[in-house]
Amino acid sequence: MYKAGRLSLQAASELAGTDRVTFADLLRQEDPLKGLAPLSPDLIRLMEAVLSEMDPEQLKIYRSLSPAERVRQGCSISTLAHQVVAYRREKLKQEHG
């Protein structure tokens, strides 16, 4: 998503003649994604929050990873998420009988 967002921002910035077009600006356009349904205000707020929390240093590190390392990192994050969910389910099961 980051790469697609960056490319869209770059294209919009070039069209606007500025480098200060934000992702939120794109989302607020009348027809941000031609031919698709407009995004809901809740989804826009969520995307803005996620993008505002991106750490440039983390992105720099991520960009330096090879494709294999990126896949490995994604798998690791997914595995951790599954473990957290399984742990929470087990705890809830114990608490509620």
- Fraction of residues in β-strands: under 5%
**Straight-line N-to-C gap:** 41 Å
Poorly predicted ranges? 1-7
> Approximately how much helix is present in the residues?
over 70%
Tell the overall outline.
flat
Q: Which structural class best describes the helix and strand composition?
A: mainly alpha
Number of domains: 2
Number of strands: 0
Largest sheet: none
Structure annotation, total helices: 5
- How confident overall, as mean pLDDT? 75
| Cα-atom radius of gyration | 19 Å
What is the N-to-C order of secondary-structure elements (H for helix, E for strand)?
Answer: HHHHH
Chart the SSEs and their pairings:
Layout: H1 2-16, H2 23-28, H3 41-52, H4 56-64, H5 67-95
Provide a descriptive summary of the structure in words.
With 97 residues, the protein is mostly helical. It folds into two domains: 1-64, no CATH class; 66-97. The chain has five helices and no strands. It has helices at residues 2-16, 23-28, 41-52, 56-64, 67-95. The radius of gyration is 19 Å and the shape is flat.
Keywords:
73% helix, 97 residues, 0% strand, 2 domains, disordered N terminus, mainly alpha
Give a brief rundown of this model.
With 97 residues, the protein is an all-alpha fold. Helix content is 73%, strand content 0%. The chain contains 5 helices and no strands.
